[in-house]
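Appendix B, Record 12. Input sequence as logged:
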Amino acid sequence: MKTKKEILLVEDTKDVLINLSEYLVMEGYHVVPARNGLEAVARLNIHLPDIILTDLLMPELDGFGLIEEIKKDPRWQRIPVVVFSARPLNAAEIQRLGVKRVLLKPCKPEVIVDAITAFC
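Logged structural output:
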């Protein structure tokens, strides 16, 4: 039996978090939600997901800060990170983040699934 891939979904907008989580579950993924970077770090300290899907603009610890935390911990560095954000990024920001993929909101759930599938 195929094991479900686990996604750490980091999103502060409640409706987006719920709707995207439901879609990903229907696609066969196990979703671990986090409402900001601090919650994501707490979840990472408990269990390592197969991929991290994160927004950038969030309270507490934003996606930029979360990605910096991920880079500091060797256990987390192997986890692919896909960013989805309403904020367009320039080439220097994308390079600084060092993530696998950047998706611009609004983004169809199918596009997100395609990005996730490419990395896990």
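The mean pLDDT is 92.
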